[in-house]
User: Fold this.
Amino acid sequence: MPNDPAFLALAGVAKRYGGAVALRDVSFSAGRGSIHAILGENGAGKSTLMKILAGAVAADCGSVTLDGRPLRLDGPAAALREGIVCIFQELSIIPDLTVAENICLADPPRRRIGTIDRGAQRRRARAVLDALGCGSGLDVRARCADLPLAKRQIVEIAKALARRPRVLILDEATSALSAEDAERVMRHLRRLREEGVCVLFISHRMHEVDALADTCSVFRNGEHVATFPAGSRTHDEIVRLMIGRSIAHVYPPKPERPPPAEPYLRVRGLARDGVLKGIDLDVRPGEIVGLGGLDGQGQRELLLALAGVLRGTTGDVRIGTAAGLPSGPRAAGGPGRRIALIPEDRKTEGLFLGLSVAANLSFAALDRLSRCGIVDTDAERALVAGLAGRLAVKAPDRDAPVATLSGGNQQKVVLGKWLATEPKLLLLMDPTRGIDVGTKQEIYRLMRDLAAAGVAILFHSTDYDELIGLCDRVLVLYDGRVAARLSGAEITEEAIVASALNLRPAASAAGSRRPHREALA
Amino acid sequence: MTTKNRVRRCILWTAAAVALSAALPAAASDTHMPECYTPAAGSERVIRVEPRRGPYRIAVANGHTGIPWRMQMIRSVKAWAAKPENAADIAELKIVSTGADVAAQIAAIDNFIQAGYDAVAFIAVNPKAFDAVIRRARTAGTVLVSFDNPVDNPDVVRITPEWMEFEGAIKTRAVLDQMPRKAGTVLEVRGIPGNSTDRDRHAGFRQVIDEHPEIRVVEVVGNWDTGTVQKVVSDALAVHGRFDAVVCQHGCRGVTNALLAAGHPKVPVGGDAENGFVRALAENGIPGISVSTSPGQGPVAVRAAIALLKGESLPALVNLPTPHVRTADMKPGVNYFPDMPDTYETVSGYAACGPDMVFTPDELMRQSADGN
Amino acid sequence: MIPALRLLVRHNDRALAAWALLLALLLLFLSIHPRGASGGVLAAWANQGVALAFVAVGQTIVVLTRGIDLSAGAILALCNCAASALVRGDPAEVALGIAAVCLIGAACGALNGLIVVRGRIQPIVATLATGAILSGVALLVRPTPGGSVDDRLADALTGTVGGVVPVSLLLLAVLVAAIWGPVRASLTGRTILAVGSAEPAAYMSGLPVDRAKVAAYALAGLFAAFGGLFLGFQTLSGDPSVGASYTLNSVAAVVLGGTALAGGAGSVAGSIAGALVLRTVGSLIFFTGLDPMAQPLFEGAVLLVAVALGAGRLLRIRNRLEVFR
Assistant:
């Protein structure tokens, strides 16, 4: 297979949305049989570039050539015909169709009269899943809406592979996968590279980039700033390229010792059939407690249960002065408990995408802004201005729909919306997923400031780095139980990974448990 | 369709009609109770069926629901059937209302045919849609009688007021008589557009009013609904200032309400026979006329069905006499009832059709308006 | 691995519930009918529901795309009036007339589809407007009820086969199987479902979204035409004002049949059951002698209970967020 370095080439591509420049004169090429990482902060233009290649967005000018031939990408169907296949972060699967129907979606096996051959379709879907190695335990006749997010992402990947791409584009496509499945997908991508496929790979997870990419390109402010062989620059250098400056301290410093206050959240024996199997935990005001572990070990359910979303959860719970779990998010946010939950999916559970930044920011606090049921608009304006300033939300203006903001700024709005309620207990579910480095730092600083102001924070992250750098204590969940309680210097990558896999190689893991158990007793 | 076909179809129909009527011929003069079941002008056709022994199973298939007139019709059918001399002829009386959907009404009649009822009296929701079901009824030996909104089919007895005369010679003529000066502007309040009854009544009105070319006519559409009528009349008053007379088809309490609310001078008003309207004329001394299409049509139709089953013959198209009263002749307790609701139809039945066709309010209110 | 039958039941639970409800109501109806079960009774029962069932089938296809067709009743009325002028004469003329009426219905539907797709107008607004226009056209074609329809064919289609099975039900089953069956199994049919389930995802997957939408509305028009034709065979005439009740009743039938108004999931078979349930409820009411004034109330109550039972899955949901899915 000839390794043609300019298999896919863009020349002078530009795109602006109204006044905002998304891409400025981008020239860029990627080779056949290579895995090419695209790096950059959110808003750097990566997504626009991918959308142009996928035919979802038309470039204002410039050309795209594939294998020496200029392309006209006037719609997703045209891009797919050329063999350019995208796996989007926002899933493109059809929830009401089955796994097999989704995998064979646009080009199902058909009988001679044009009707779809469902048997052949199931076999083809099964074959693709088997080739990917992630198919076990996935019934191709199941409806996708009934699958958990991680499985749906596998279907999304299989659907792209079923189209036999020449150019495969992954936009944070492994973010929801379990570690094992992510590893299998990466293995498969390497196999595709050997078969001559050009893989473009967007990720914010540097360890994936290190493991996979052979070439890296960095984008900043809509411009292509550098392309270099993977491994030729250090992480610090890459981060500097991305944000144009070096970061002195990525994480704010932790306080010397946690405050000796009474726990604000006290949980004993929290259980929910099959998912949570007796969890004990305390969170004190001023403390950031991390929740780690492999995907799907109960972290999500634990946070949802504390916010009162899950029915049928049992256990002895005290939050602030209130005993028992709240009956729903409204009760959770009420005066007794003052809980705020930053949900996992900001687009559906966190934001009203069509409404303005200002409206989104004030929604959760309307209760306290109202007098006799009438919203005090002056107070609302003051609150919104305060929050937007404090969070440095970058928006054209505060009446712009929140959908027009970048992912990082959207997440800031979600945070701001809950900060407006002045919570005493903040539950965060992977708040930095798919967010650029700069915004991540701002969010870390904000969390630390909130803790310093006496807020108790329970923080679930899929990024071990965050748990190590940010948290005062870390609980690692495994199979619905707390596998390890780490604090201070015990919070190391080795300890977290080992506990996440329920291994106990490091002596410190065993040693670290006992004192915490005693502290709880 | 080709001409040949049309001719062939025509011959077929005529043959069928001849076969039917020729089987049991009867002269027009021999029909049952001609003072009540008066043949329509120009209609020679007579219907007669093979007599059978009673008592009979009778059904009434009403269409539209929720109209006070229809509810009173149902009550009067029950009140009539409850009289001992009539009860002897009736083994079972079933009354259903199927709503505005023609398919549902056809299915209801089919169900009665299937269930072996002897006769079905019905108010068709559509005059054209019942040819097939009329054929099925004939095959099964079920007698159909169509009333109020009659079907366009000469093979069943149809009972209806003569709408041209009703609106023209009676109502409009009386309004003109009571106008001091046969000039100025007359407001015509029409019914539901496109409905054949509205079309006929409008034609009757024009026939009379056109004799006075110096009278200007303003038309508004009231949909036979009191609320709508009141609104459109108020609007017309706002635009035109005043009228010299009003001729209203139905929902005419809306007219008197609008006139009284506007402080309009008392000009002649022709309208329906709902208690509210008649009271408004009588108690305010507004000159005018109340012309009735009585819900008593229901029992008249049921009695026609029983007469046919007993072997009597009836005209194929019956025009009922039209009861009416002018303001000067209105008497409380006779022409209007201070204790009854405004929607009560003051003419409870057709006196010309015999003493059993007159009902007191008490008799009617004892009956429920539902199907049993 | 879950057995295929259980998957089938799980994916079609609401349509199956609608059929179970229909069966129960039909048995109740036959047991209180003075004549009991007979071919004639069944034919009368089926005939009154088949026109609505046809419209409901078309409505379902549009609802699957997350659209709605508020012109369905108007297309039915227009086709009914057209049928009363075209479907008569010798057999060849009758056949041509039927074909012409079907074409009119499909063309009206395709027009809806093109307005929705090209004009980027909300279906509810676009079809409300076309519905008003088509009602007007129907009034022009036939200002008052009238016309005639071939009565031999009408008798055949409203009768029974062997005195037992209503021809109208067979007609419904055959037409739906012969038209929606192949479309459902084609890429267009799959796209119809995909568009309703997640339109952006369907577009990004390269599916022929626009074609599928136009096809869905055209099919809805065609099935409304079948409804209008059948009504013609029932009444042997055309009536321009007949459509009004069919639009909303077809939507009610779709909901009863378990199709989500949010699109993506549902079945035509369920809607047929829904339509027949609505009609059976009407028949039951007058044979049980309920107050006719209570009929709309009773029908509404049945609709509410059926939909609530269909929503019974919500009671089982443990994660409160899933309620909003």
About this structure: Chain B has twelve helices and 15 strands.
